[in-house]
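Colleagues,

For the teaching module next term, I've prepared a clean inverse folding example: a structure given as tokens, and then the sequence designed for it. I'd like students to try predicting residues themselves before seeing the answer, so please don't circulate the second half yet.
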């Protein structure tokens, strides 16, 4: 590779793509890859979706940026549609998941300050979570590998193990203001949080006057088979952070909230230079056009079930490679027996793009437009990759036996 002047904060694979078509990526050398990463659950409608391309190019010919000093009608329309489809009364648009989470954290603190309880600024969070890479969201996630070397950790977060409601009750103090959780921990290893635990968190929040915040940056906009995961489990938050899929690949995030939760967010309390710009709003509305169309979420549920069935068959066929299959809808994870990165590399050799995550899990998050043919093709490639890993293991054992 040529010398790069990009800050070396990514361990990039020596592979570049020049274009995409639906669920496929075409590398600069012309090779085709089946995309089961979707830009880490971002390209919900695949690559070069005609409706998104049309919306973006039409808007690009009219207006890119005017700032939030003025009304942006398409942003008002997108906010209204999101509120109509969810629990929310208000939406704040930013450019990323981390920005959406920063807004959620500030909103929770400001809510209590506006209610005459400024001491209630602490937020209960959970191990294995990932909420972003700003100083505050890193502190909320609490993972030492991400926090090391950045000075004092931002105060105000109390981390627990998910699943223990009694521990949550014990952790509530007069300074506690909110509870923050992902319904499914994506970066943490596609760990599905038990619905009973989420319902218990809602009850604790109501009992103690806390706000319940859901991080649906990865689970939102159809990924689990519902528009948002909270609708699947039947637990409604007060604040919700979204990003990734709502822009279909265009940078966008949003913080949704009830009128009560947002009561402290008055003029001047928060802002964003680029958040809610006309380009992003045009794309966001186009994404909702597709995702909210009749039958789309039914399709996601069917494909999610089919993918999980194929993965279960592969687990039975390759027990030395695949330990567990987990997830909801098209947010799926394969816990590897060996190193997850080994399976990711083997899949890439079969021209299938995937991504490693926590708990030794390989995430498989294809575009939501995926069909039966692509799932069958993915299963065949996973089968071949697992077979190669098994053959390498057998060869290693023979060598070790000969040496012994």
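(Answer key — instructors only)
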């Amino acid at each position: 590779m040529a010398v790069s002047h990009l800050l070396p904060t990514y361990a990039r694979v020596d592979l570049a793509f020049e274009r995409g078509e639906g669920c496929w990526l075409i590398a600069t050398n012309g090779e085709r890859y089946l995309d089961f990463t979707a830009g880490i659950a971002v390209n919900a409608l695949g690559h070069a979706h005609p409706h998104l391309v049309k919306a973006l190019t039409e808007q690009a010919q009219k207006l890119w940026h005017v700032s939030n000093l003025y009304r942006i009608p398409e942003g008002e329309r997108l906010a209204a549609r999101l509120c109509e489809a969810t629990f929310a009364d208000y939406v704040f648009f930013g450019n990323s998941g981390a920005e959406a989470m920063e807004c959620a954290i500030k909103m929770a603190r400001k809510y209590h300050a506006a209610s005459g309880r400024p001491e209630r600024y602490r937020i209960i969070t959970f191990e294995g979570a990932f909420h972003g890479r700003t100083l505050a969201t890193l502190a909320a996630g609490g993972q030492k590998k991400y926090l090391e070397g950045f000075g004092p950790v931002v105060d105000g977060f109390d981390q627990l193990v998910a699943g223990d409601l009694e521990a949550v009750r014990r952790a509530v103090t007069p300074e506690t203001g909110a509870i923050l959780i992902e319904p499914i921990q994506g970066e943490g290893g596609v760990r599905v949080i038990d619905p009973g635990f989420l319902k218990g968190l809602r009850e604790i929040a109501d009992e103690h006057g806390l706000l319940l915040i859901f991080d649906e940056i990865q689970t939102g906009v159809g990924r689990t088979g519902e528009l948002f995961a909270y609708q699947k489990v039947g637990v409604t938050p007060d604040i919700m952070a979204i990003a990734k899929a709502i822009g279909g690949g265009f940078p966008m995030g949003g913080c949704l909230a009830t009128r009560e939760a947002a009561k402290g967010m008055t003029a001047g309390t928060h802002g964003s230079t680029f958040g809610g710009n006309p380009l992003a709003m045009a794309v966001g509305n186009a994404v909702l056009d597709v995702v909210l169309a009749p039958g789309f979420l039914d399709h996601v549920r069917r494909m999610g079930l089919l993918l999980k069935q194929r993965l279960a068959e592969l687990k039975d066929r390759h027990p030395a490679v695949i330990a567990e299959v987990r997830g909801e809808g098209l947010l799926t994870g394969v816990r590897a027996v060996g190193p997850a990165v080994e399976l990711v590399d083997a899949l890439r050799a079969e021209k299938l793009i995937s991504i490693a995550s926590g708990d030794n899990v390989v995430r498989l998050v294809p575009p939501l437009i995926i069909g039966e043919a692509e799932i069958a093709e993915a299963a065949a490639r996973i089968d071949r990759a697992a077979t190669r890993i098994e053959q390498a293991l057998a060869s290693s054992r023979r060598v070790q036996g000969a040496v012994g």
